[in-house]
Design brief:
260 residues; alpha+beta; Creatine Amidinohydrolase; five-stranded antiparallel sheet; four-stranded antiparallel sheet; 4 helices; globular; binds magnesium ion
Amino acid sequence: MIEILSPAEVQRGRATGALVGGILQTLKQRSVAGTNLLEIDRWTRQLIAEAGATSCYLDYAPAWADGPFGHAICTGVNDGVLHGKPYDYRLADGDLLSLDLAVLLDGIAADAAISFVIGGEPDPESSALIDATERALAAGFAAARPGGRTGDISHAIGTVLREAGYEVNTDYGGHGIGTVMHQEPPVPNDGRASRGYELRTGMLLAIEPWVMADTAELVTGDDGWTLRSATGCRTAHTEHTIAITEDGAEILTLPSAPGS
Ligand code: MG
């Protein structure tokens, strides 16, 4: 089902999105060498609870999993790119950390992810990976407009990632979002323009380019959740929830300005 939200529901989505964006920025600021991934999960639960929101991940139990995720945030380190399950690991300077967060507030969900390097100057490979996903996300966003198609977004994302020299894996990608976290339509990270589902005012989409340095193949970690690059190479993932509005697309998961 493709959900079309009312203007009032989109307005609530703005609040959820600002919360998600704000929590991710707080977590980024707090994540330094020595920070434990389980600590990041605890901070996330606390920030979600303080806002009166609920986690979309805690009880998330897809058919392929052996039970609920049990954590409020995905933490992917270096070769870990998607569904990263937090575990007892202390971050080190130079680690590439991807954080993926979805919450439900006032009945509307929002989903976003950021990737960054712990400590000082990131290495060139990590910078290139992160930069490619951020540019792909910006291109996907620019291609989203009412009357367009999901394929326009997919094509824009895939073009940036391929031109940056990466193979694109389309097994996992963006998705519709609204009263629940995952729904139709799928928004793969590559595809053909003018194909796919029509974009309509009132749709919310989570757009999420991710990339691996030298492979398109994933392997599942021993925890049954964390998807890693098959070669052990570094990876990056960037995501925003957007709303299709009459004026084009609007990013909902930017952190709100302090005091706003
Ligand atoms: Mg998502």
